[in-house]
Amino acid sequence: MLALSRFITRRPLAILITILALTIFFGLGARQVTMTTNIRDFFPGDHPEVKAYDAIADTFGGTEYIMVATAGEDVFQQESLELIQSLTERLSSIPGVDRVRSLTNVEEVKGTPWGVELGALLEELPQDEEEAAHFRARVLQDDFYAGSVVSRDGKLSLLALELDPQESAVEVADRVLEAIDEDGVYATGAPILNSLLAKSMKEDLSRLIPLVVLLIALVLYLYFHNLWGVLLPFLTVIISTIWTLGAMGLSGRQMTPLNSVMPAILITLGNAYGIHILSRFYDEVKREGRGKAIENTLAAVGTAVLMAGTTTIAGFLSNCTSGIVQMREFGFFTAFGILIAMVISLIFIPAVLLYVKIPDKGASREPGALAKILQRVAQLTAASPEKVIIVALLAAGTLALGIPRLTANSNLFNFFDQSTQPRIAYELVKKSFSGSESLELVVEGDILAPEVLRSIESLQNELEATGLTGKPISIVDVLKRVNMALHDGDPAYKAVPASRELAAQYLLLLEMSDPDFLTRFVTVDYSQARIQAMVKDTSPEGLANLFARVDALTGKYGGKVTTTGMVKLLDALAAMIIRGQIASLILGLIAVFLLVRWLTDSWEGGLLCTLLVALSTAATFGFMGWTGVALDMVTVLISSIGIGVGVDYSVHLYSGYQEARRKGEESAAAAAAAIRQRGNAIVGNAAAVIGGFLIFLFSSFPPLRYFGSLVSFTMFFAAAFSLTLLPALIIAGNRTGSRTVQKGLFQ
Amino acid sequence: MKRLLILGLLVALASSAAGASGEEILARLDETMQSNSREVVQKMTLVSAKGQERTRQVQMWSKTDRMLVRFLAPADVAGTGLLSVGDDMWLYLPALGRVRRIAGHAKKGSFMGTDLSYEDMEEFGKTGFAAAYSPELIKMEEEFYLLRLTPRSQDRGYQYLEMKVCRERFLPLRIEYYAPDGSLAKVLTTMDFQEVQGRPTASKLIVEDVAKGSKTILEQLQVDFEPDMDEEIFSTRYLERGR
């Protein structure tokens, strides 16, 4: 620290210029940061689920859909049909939309008086009421169309847009949203949500970040009562945020829903180091010259800043073990940002302090209500540490019992409130149709063989019988329809063709009508077929249930079956969130333990501080379990923040205890002294952090709101435990320790 | 003025000396390829964008506006027949044991599941190119002429074609089909030239659908330009016989 302060006092200008230059450099890089909400970007490119997903898109065409629903009294009315027709044409012409399937253009395998052909279900719009009624009756009684392009009550119609897998689904979704402006027309599906999410998230953050900034400025002003006291910690977080975003931009990284909270985290957490340094400096400068004051400040609080900073960095870095790409990047870049904030606080702030005008009055305050409360807490803890321990453990234990109830949810739909437009559209499609996300099964085998076709048929029937999907569609349905049509519409022939020759000849016939029609059902060499079904419930439990059933069904099918689709990615993502969370928790705790052990030079300190932060994290997860808040892409971050930041309070208290012990106090008195002396700073810091994170309550996204309140909850626990449980444990531990020693002596 | 006249004269002389006009080239090409009747055994390999293949073998008889196609392989479609007379088309599925008529607009569609449409197919040797396109000679090389063919009617489905015509045999070497939006839709290449009954013919055609990424390879295994065939075969009765 001495070398550092010498370096600063000798070359302040060089430091300031270097930092300015780097900030400009990173600032330019920060402008390259874009936002992605594409689920696929969350997976490493070689992830098996992504490979399976890409393979099916390659073979059969897109599996990503945008669903456009039109709502009205009766979709078979002239106006509604005209609207559907106009939407179909408009949406088909959008670049990136491969196919649109709607009531007005859906194919029909037609048995004509002289044969069979693939034609449009609706060749011309009905000219009068009678024709409309006839068309309505024909469509609604056919389960090929009712429940897929039209709701069974005839009040909604659905246009399914199949997207070109080569194009960015989010960009296509933007174009689709631009193309529809009618009332009563809703768009949904993962690409639409992704697009809206990216947009509203930007808006949300541009609203929240100024609020966080304002709050922190207020806290700083209340603390220092002068301009530089506000400005310097502030500049620190601004610089660290710019550098971090710059580093992301320069390395080609993108913002995601997950790391969108990063700037707010950096602003909230990054200013603590500056506060530490400034408040000590104002104390020192009353007695010494500036140079000497800086030297003393760094000597006194430099280590404390390092302690707080390194544990926080370790907490964030623990995310780097996650299987989710964006988690790793979040962990890495936030740790980088904290490192910068710490370094800037240690170098930049002292360098500036050499130049600026120093206010006459420092931050001297009267002992207020807080000091009295702390005094009371100290007395209570010293008097009956056992009681404190029991109460604290009971509280934490009760909460922790909720952990088994914890769920993970990777569904982007949760980012929207029930009452918002995207969510309404999603629920509408889910209620009246099967859903907007597809389950894709690829079966392999000699597809045209009647026994294979029959086992595909029974697989489909059993899948539908689970009630978890809409009606599955495959080449079997196409063949059954042709079979019936070529047998003069006799329903007895709505069955799998009796021979492989018949099946092959039917397909040949269809190919002559439209060779592209079959490509989405079966491969050119008839070795793979696709079964597609829309998934009704995309909640984590719904998906887990679905995949358990699907696995059982596909196990019964003779040949190889691959299960994929966007829902499979969502499910895999949820599993990765949980797994990543466990790994990063363990790693974070180990790292924090080693750091604290090293920083306090005490095994007891390392163990107690780690135990404390583990308890407050367990309490938070348990709280989530009890309240039903799921771990999702944002709330998953709380534990790394909880560990890295929460441990600061206990480290703070423990080093206060060590300081008092060095002055000759016995353990109970030293613990009480630590509460009195360090309590103020702990409460102040926790209040600032909690305040900063509570700003997220103003977010329009539920996960961000949960995130803000949960981090606040963890911080509250970490601070409260540090002031009560930790000193109680120290006192109780020393008593039993000394008793054991005494026993040994008297034997 | 005088100079200009001379210049014009020189230019005219030069171009006539260089060879034929677009019309003449296209007429000779059609003449080379067209035959009153023919019998062909053809292997069709369809290759999907992903590289999966399907092979079929057919025997085709054609005379004026009539054509009969009989599938020989694979076994599961063997015996399937397709008859086209004018704009009418019938299909015979042996496994069903019945003849069915196919809608007239099927002619706009794919030729038996290949990357060529019926219309594309018929220009080869049957209707000819000159009937549907007006040619313009845009380049002359040692080996080939480059023609730009503009459709005579709007509904032809292409904006234009660019055709390389072999100067020696008057057969197309390569045809690029451009979509109405001006993008390249298909590329057809010919190869393995032979002389059959005194007529030059390409025994292999490759058609690539640029947008879809799929490919069709057509190989002529046998060809007869003067087949001995009974008019009776172009009837639904014969079609139904299956052989």
What does this entry look like structurally?
The complex is a heterodimer of chains A (747) and B (243). Among the domains of chain A are: 1-31 and 225-364, Multidrug efflux transporter AcrB transmembrane domain (Multidrug efflux transporter AcrB transmembrane fold), CATH 1.20.1640.10; 63-195, Alpha-Beta Plaits, CATH 3.30.70. Chain A has helices at 2-10, 12-30, 48-60, 78-92, 129-140, 169-179, 190-224, 227-250, 262-284, 290-317, 325-353, 369-383, 385-400, 421-432, 450-465, 475-486, 500-513, 540-556, 566-600, 603-627, 638-662, 667-694, 702-723, 725-746; strands at residues 65-71, 97-101, 107-112, 115-120, 156-163, 185-188, 437-444, 528-535, 561-564. The longest helix of chain A has 35 residues, at 190-224. Chain A is an alpha+beta fold. In chain A, a hairpin with a 2-residue loop joins strand 3 and strand 4. In chain A, strands 2-5-1-6 form a four-stranded antiparallel β-sheet, sandwiched between helices. In chain A, strands 8-7-9 form a three-stranded antiparallel β-sheet, sandwiched between helices. The model of chain B is unreliable at 9-18 (pLDDT under 50). Chain B is built from four helices and 13 strands. Chain B is of the alpha+beta class and 243 residues long. Chain B has one domain (21-241): Lipoprotein localisation LolA/LolB/LppX (outer membrane lipoprotein receptor (LolB), chain A, Clam). In chain B, strands 6-5-4-3-2-1-13-12-11-10-9-8-7 form a 13-stranded antiparallel β-sheet. The longest helix of chain B is centred in the first third of the chain and has 17 residues, at 2-18. Chain B has helices at residues 2-18, 22-33, 118-123, 236-241; strands at residues 37-47, 53-63, 66-73, 81-85, 88-93, 98-102, 133-140, 144-151, 160-166, 172-178, 184-196, 199-209, 215-224. Helices cover 17% and strands 45% of the residues of chain B. The chains are: A alpha+beta (747), B alpha+beta (243).
